[in-house]
């Protein structure tokens, strides 16, 4: 499962647009990872502040 550092998250929403299963829910105050997260990690490198971590290692 992808983890979000809420203190670091700048709520830019870049990760929500690249998430294949649309498993990231952005509100005005937080980013939440939904239960349909596949832990693919595709969103992690798109975070400009490094607030996302986890996911499967890429081969």
UniProtKB/TrEMBL annotation:
<dbReference type="InterPro" id="IPR017896">
    <property type="entry name" value="4Fe4S_Fe-S-bd"/>
</dbReference>
<feature type="domain" description="4Fe-4S ferredoxin-type">
    <location>
        <begin position="35"/>
        <end position="57"/>
    </location>
</feature>
<dbReference type="Pfam" id="PF00037">
    <property type="entry name" value="Fer4"/>
</dbReference>
<protein>
    <submittedName>
        <fullName>4Fe-4S ferredoxin iron-sulfur binding domain-containing protein</fullName>
    </submittedName>
</protein>
<dbReference type="InterPro" id="IPR017900">
    <property type="entry name" value="4Fe4S_Fe_S_CS"/>
</dbReference>
<feature type="domain" description="4Fe-4S ferredoxin-type">
    <location>
        <begin position="1"/>
        <end position="29"/>
    </location>
</feature>
